Amino acid sequence: MAVTRDEEKTVQAVRGTEARTIAKWEADGWHLVDRDQGTFRTALTFRRPRPRMSRATAAAFAGLAVVAVGGLTLGAIFGDDEGTTAAPADATASSPPADVGTPAAPEPTPTETTWDETRDGDLTFGETARFRSTAGSNDIPLEITVEAPVPFTPSEAATVLDARAEYAVREGQLYATTVFFTVTVRNLSTSQAFDTDFVFSDVADTGADDQVSEVRDGDVVGIIGRPQEIPPGGSFTLKDGYSVADATAIEYTLDIDGLAGRSFSFSR
Fold this sequence. Notes:
Structural class: alpha+beta
Strand content: 35-45%
Order of helices and strands: EHEEHHHEEEEEEEEEEEEE
Helix content: 10-25%
CATH architecture of the largest domain: Sandwich
Largest sheet: 7 strands, antiparallel
Number of domains: 2
Shape: globular
Oligomer: single chain
CATH topology of the largest domain: Immunoglobulin-like
Number of strands: 16
Radius of gyration: 28 Å
CATH class of the largest domain: Mainly Beta
């Protein structure tokens, strides 16, 4: 019988989307074992058994290896015999032209070979961060751009939520400055869709980081307004709004893939 051991994975879910996230991972064979609810998101810990190679399977592979080694040995023996009896070839007839070179290899696909991930997590507004997401079965190359904050005046119909509320969605208030950031995420993969469940944002250096509200108004939909996934070669652009005490030195942070991914911070 095969021996198994458990493996664990912790993912982040925006508050209110936990049920969808749990259902998604349970469909892949994971079981929820712990949940830790935070200000904006809930950390969900899953566990599932990790199968290991059985003794019978290992023995079968070992047998194949022995057969392969035996075949190579016989080939080497008979190859040497044939080499000793063959007539020498005409050197002038078999020599290749001096200018013959190795055929050039085909051009590599930029998104799979030459595309480099951004190492520094601190960028300037307008710069593009590059990140290989592990949200799919293989690495998914992404490009993330955040533009400088733009001040705006929310309407009376705006939704204002306390971004620092613990364990609950609570109505917030408007502070001295309300801004939005234009966020663009591009999926450069030619075959895989990017799951956006674990994309989160936050701001810092606001003059009073404990007094921050999320604002949604009209086309300022917030990061929660992102699509569920980005198709291969696709992208999304949205406006993410915050109300803060002071936006002079504000820093915007975008987390990709939750705890398993990267954080990129954009500032002036």
